[in-house]
Amino acid sequence: MLRIQPTVVKGIIAHAKKEAPLEACGYLAEKDGIVIRNYELTNMDASEVHYSMDPAEQFAAVRSMRAAGYSLCAAYHSHPRTPARPSAEDVRLAYDADLSYVIISLLDYSMKSFKIKNGMFEKEEIEIVDNDHSGLYKERHKGLCLRENP
Ligand SMILES: [Zn+2]
C-alpha cells in the first residue's frame, strides 16, 4: 500500500505534463508512512519511451530527504503515451525490491504503484491521504483515476 498526499499526486502530474512528450522521472519521500514530497529528477535519456535518472541528482535528493527526516520510498516515472503498466525494461531495471515503482500515464491520467522483484511485478493499492483537504475531488472530476475498480 502506498499512502500519498494529494499535493504530491498533483506535483507528479504537473511534472509529467511539463516533460511531455518525454518521460519524466523522480523520487518520492515518506514520513510516518505517508508520501509527502516528490523530487523531480532529470531524465538523462531525454526519451519518450525510456528514462534514466541522473545519479548526481539521485544522490542529492536522498541527502536532502535525510536532512529533512524523510525516507526514500518510491521511484516514479511517466508514460506519456502508454498505459501505467511496467514495461519489460521497467521490470528489468528495477533495482530495489523494497521501493515502490509508481507510473503515471498521460494516456488516461491513471497512476499505479508496483512492487518489482525477481523479474515479476505486483500492483499495490494507492491510498490518498487528504490531510490538508486540498481538493482531491476536483482532480477526480477531471478524470484522474487513482485506483482501479474493485
Ligand atoms: Zn516505464
Key structural traits:
single chain, 150 residues, alpha/beta, 6-stranded mixed beta sheet, two-stranded parallel ribbon
User: How many individual helices?
Assistant: 4
Overall strand count: 8
SSE order: EHEEHEHEEEEH
The SS-based structural class is alpha/beta
Helix proportion: 25-40%
State the name of the first-level CATH class. Answer: Alpha Beta
In round numbers, the mean pLDDT is: 89
Strand content: 25-35%
Give the N-to-C terminal Cα separation: 15 Å
What is the CATH topology classification name?
Cytidine Deaminase, domain 2
Distinct small molecules: zinc ion
Radius of gyration: 14 Å
| Low confidence ranges | 137-143
Mind telling me the CATH superfamily name?
Cytidine Deaminase, domain 2
CATH architecture type: 3-Layer(aba) Sandwich
Number of domains: 1
Main beta sheet strand tally, sense and closure: 6 strands, mixed
Summarize the structure.
With 150 residues, the protein is α/β, with parallel strands linked by helices. It has helices at residues 6-19, 55-68, 88-93, 136-141, and strands at residues 2-4, 25-31, 34-41, 71-79, 100-105, 110-117, 120-124, 126-128. The structure holds zinc ion.
